[in-house]
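Record minuted for everyone:
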Amino acid sequence: MCGIVGYIGNQNSVPILIEGLKRLEYRGYDSAGVASINLGKSDLIKVKGKVSALEEKVKHEQLQGNIGIGHTRWATHGAPNETNAHPHFNSDKTLYLIHNGIIENYSVLKTALISKGYNFNSETDSEVLVHLIDSFIKKGNDLFNSVRYSLNEVEGAYGICVIYSDEPDKIIVAKKGSPLVIGIGDGENYIASDVNALIAYTSQIVYLEDDEIAVVYKDKFQARSISDEEIVKEVHEVKIALEEISKGGYQHYMLKEIMEQPESVRNSMRGRLLYEDGISKLGGLEGFDNRIAYSRRIVISACGTSWHAGLVGEYMLEQYAGIPVEVDYASEFRYRNPVIQPDDTMIFISQSGETADTLAAMKEAKRKGALVLGVCNVVGSSIARESTAGVYIHAGPEIGVASTKAFTSQLVVLSLITLLAARKRNLSLIDGKKIIEEIDSLPDKIARILKINDQIEHIAEKFVDAKNFLYLGRGYNFPVALEGALKLKEISYIHAEGYPAAEMKHGPIALIDENMPTVVIAPKDSVYDKVLSNIEEVKARKGKVIAIANEDDDQIDKLVDHVIKVPQTIRMLMPILTVIPLQLLAYHIAVKKGLNVDQPRNLAKSVTVE
């Protein structure tokens, strides 16, 4: 899986493909390639490594053609090398295919194709598809039907683009479980797995749905179902400025996105706070607010950072709305025959809105009759379209692979959902207004934290050589400990674990020594004294402690080695503040280790395979 770009028109496709692939680099990848058709002749260039290497090779070999496809690969089947890179091709190199997703029955299909005389160059599941399509072409079918017949034999997920030098006026695209969009131009059309690859060229976007296949010409497109029924598609206007996906003068996207959080958090709440009524207004939930408030149970399902946001949401909803809440890994949810009732509400959280496990879990919940809500960032994404109702977090494009501003915006939206449900139930007007005042104050408090970035960088310098970290928190800040540890793991490759602070003595305390730094999240709340006791336990074993504490806390200074102070707020909002120093700490440690924080190894921004 990773990035797909396609072009058909009157221009040379290759520079457009390269530029599109560059805009998809943030998703993470290990190899890249392009294929084009020029005057009925096709050609191909692939490289292991970065798009910049592909660009140099393309210039050297003067590749061109007014129809082309390009791909960045994140290895699933087969090692990251040039042979396994996309595009894949048939034996006479007239047919080229790029593919995101996983073909689950590729082994059976491959065996059948080998028995028919087909030879395979790569270790990938994707190469099976190009030979399968070729086998139908050899039976006398045109390209469209050959692709369609092939996909009827495939089990798994795919987003594909196919070009064929014998039919050089079209690109065939199809989708199932892996995102794919068509960009509409003037006498030229584009294809991509992510709108970000196209916004320099067009704002007119068509979203393909699962089990749809389309023939894209330079001046039109035709969409049909895999069963060959005509489909009328709507063209959407996408409003993303090119500047929004640039670094804006920062060294890395990740730092830019951390620093954008006063504004991204403000955007997440903008127009949604009704102070006089002490309640939130969420347009995407209109007509469902009572159903949510009086649910028998709420289940939150997500993966990675979004799962950590869900854990905070559990604390919020149970404390203020009094609704039982469970939080499930989406990757486990659909495989354990979950007990879901029609009066349950399911909330699915995903930054990209394309997370394969989360999307599959959502479909399972819909089949079982629950109310299905989506909380995501990307407008028009699969989860946004699949959900019954939902809320956009409005964090703006997040390019860095390690999520930062999306996490805090997810927490804001969960606090707004909590406020809505709680006021519908039994939360008083006075308490509702107090929560709104605190939510509204968050951007200014975040800005205050960001002003001590230099102090956090200085602390980070002392721990660059650490091999392990332990993160501790209690209550609302236990999920923050998990998130802080995840950030450090993702971008610095330092082993880190998050734990409830009270659980440290049930095992992890055995690891504590002078070489094991411990980050303790210790705001002044109802368990503050308990957390101080946990700090004493670490210090008694010569452990180094970095504390995240409140600005008015002088007591903690003499107990720890380093302290990072944040403003005070109510308990349910404290994670939005305490997580920001942890984002900066991970960022600075990774940068000082000389690592690429925007494209950490082995990771993809949007995980579109299971």
Summary: The first strand starts at residue 2 and ends at 8. The chain has a mean pLDDT of 91.
